């Protein structure tokens, strides 16, 4: 991972780590339920959770997998994840600082690799997917979820600006066809896929990133003044001149190693 992007991620999420423990969108929902359903069907003994964040995915998978290792680039995030999982009495999860582009594990070390709502922070997706494939045993599965990139260039440019103003460590959300190409190039075959909508409540979404009042006001103005078609692409809702919420589409993929 490039040093500049690594520093942006660590700065952004180091200070915001605690807020992710209570984030409703990260804690659960039909998206995590589907990943868990796919994971249960694989009967894995050892799993790796990449860019674990506050540890919600690692916690969910530790309910039925004997050994789960959760990695993240940001030490404060690992700290809150470790505390969060320990409070729930899970002893199967271990935590380790690691870069997704240089995982400190031997080839074919895991039956299952998960990566949930994180890849839009990676400077390049393909190197991370190749590392995930490398540490997967043959026949193992990568279970992945990320924000689905929009196919329309104007809508994609609009939401990219919104995301980057809110979170400077956001790189880009890839559309479905790009994801399929990345996984194929990494030696993985997509077996299952789904798209699930997730509502983002504006106050929670911007507040989690500790935006300055002036920066948040500028962002709201940018959204209000954007073309109606761009706002409609993400179902932005406004009330009394204020942004209330919008909707992300999440792409979920299960890809197996041949």
Unreliable parts? none
Helix percent band: 40-55%
Q: Could you say what the CATH architecture is?
A: 3-Layer(aba) Sandwich
* Category from helices, strands and their pairing: alpha/beta
Total domains? 1
- Number of DSSP-assigned strands: 8
Nearest-angstrom radius of gyration? 18 Å
| CATH class categorisation | Alpha Beta
Question: What's this entry about, in short?
Answer:
The chain is α/β, with parallel strands linked by helices and 258 residues long.
Tell me what you see in this structure.
By secondary structure, the chain is an alpha/beta fold. It has one domain (3-150, 169-200, 249-257): Vaccinia Virus protein VP39 (Rossmann fold), CATH 3.40.50. It has eleven helices and eight strands. The protein has helices at 3-21, 24-27, 30-40, 56-61, 75-87, 125-135, 153-166, 176-185, 202-207, 213-225, 228-233, and strands at 46-50, 67-72, 93-97, 110-116, 136-147, 188-201, 237-239, 242-257. Strands 1, 2, 3, 4, 5, 6, 7 and 8 form an eight-stranded mixed beta sheet that branches. The mean pLDDT is 90.
Secondary structure layout:
Layout: H1 3-21, H2 24-27, H3 30-40, E1 46-50, H4 56-61, E2 67-72, H5 75-87, E3 93-97, E4 110-116, H6 125-135, E5 136-147, H7 153-166, H8 176-185, E6 188-201, H9 202-207, H10 213-225, H11 228-233, E7 237-239, E8 242-257
Parallel strand pairs: 1-2, 1-4, 2-3, 4-5
Antiparallel strand pairs: 5-8, 6-8, 7-8
Please give a handful of descriptors for the protein shown.
258 residues, alpha/beta, Rossmann fold, 8-stranded mixed beta sheet, 8 strands, globular
């Amino acid at each position: 991972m490039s040093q500049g992007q690594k520093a942006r991620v660590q700065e952004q999420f180091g200070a915001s780590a605690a807020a992710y423990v209570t984030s409703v969108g990260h804690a659960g929902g039909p998206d995590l339920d589907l990943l868990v359903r796919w994971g249960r069907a694989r009967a894995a003994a050892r799993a790796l959770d990449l860019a674990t964040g506050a540890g919600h995915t690692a916690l969910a998978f530790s309910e039925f997998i004997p050994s789960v290792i959760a990695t993240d680039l940001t030490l404060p995030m690992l700290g809150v994840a470790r505390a969060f999982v320990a409070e729930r009495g899970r002893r199967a999860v271990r935590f380790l600082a690691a870069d997704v582009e240089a995982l400190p594990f031997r080839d074919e070390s895991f039956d299952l690799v998960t990566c949930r709502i994180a890849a839009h922070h990676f400077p390049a997706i393909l190197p991370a997917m190749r590392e995930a494939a490398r540490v997967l045993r043959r026949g193992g599965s990568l279970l992945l979820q990320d924000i689905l990139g929009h196919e329309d260039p104007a809508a994609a440019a609009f939401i990219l600006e919104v995301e980057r103003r809110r979170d400077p460590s956001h790189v880009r959300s890839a559309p479905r066809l790009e994801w399929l190409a990345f996984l194929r190039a990494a030696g993985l075959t997509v077996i299952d896929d789904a798209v699930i909508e997730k509502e983002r409540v504006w106050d929670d979404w911007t507040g989690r990133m500790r935006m300055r009042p002036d920066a948040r006001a500028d962002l709201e103005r940018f959204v209000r003044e954007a073309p109606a078609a761009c706002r409609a692409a993400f179902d932005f809702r406004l009330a009394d001149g204020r942004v209330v919420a919008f909707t992300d589409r999440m792409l979920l993929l299960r890809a197996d190693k041949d």
